[in-house]
Design brief:
2 helices; 28% strand
Length: 133
């Protein structure tokens, strides 16, 4: 059974694929690539000799961006707020509530949108992307 590729740790895209190439010596090597931002592992060093190795490497580094970074405005530590919501993004009532998460700085009030990010992982990625702006 093949392991599922995790989303891109840089852009959050889920259109991730692995490829098998042959080098000049006819040795196979595997790469994993994001089709949104183009980030790729294994293409330069050709070190992943099996599909499983390449997928494991991609999935291992995919979790490294999940630590909340300091607020880009004031430098304080942000807080995660998770709550149950009975409303969808467009305001429709949901019979079964969903958990939603947003990130907020308690000092300056900077926050991610609480309406369009439903998972903790998505909210953290949205927050951390602001750091580089």
């Amino acid at each position: 059974m093949t392991e599922k590729l995790k989303p891109c740790p840089f852009c959050g895209n889920q259109d991730i694929h692995y490829y098998c190439y042959s080098d000049n010596n006819e040795e196979n090597f595997y790469t994993v690539e994001c089709h949104e931002c183009g980030i790729c592992i294994g293409i330069n060093d050709k070190k992943y000799k099996t599909k499983s190795e390449a997928i494991k490497a991609w999935n291992t580094r995919a979790n490294q961006n999940m630590e909340l970074k300091a607020c880009p405005c004031c430098g304080d530590n942000p807080k995660k707020i998770t709550y149950k919501s009975h409303f969808s993004f467009i305001g429709n009532y949901l019979e079964n509530p969903v958990l939603k998460t947003f990130i907020i700085c308690p000092t300056c009030g900077l926050s991610t949108s609480e309406w369009n990010k439903e998972t903790e992982e998505e909210a953290i990625k949205q927050w951390n992307r602001r750091i580089n702006i």
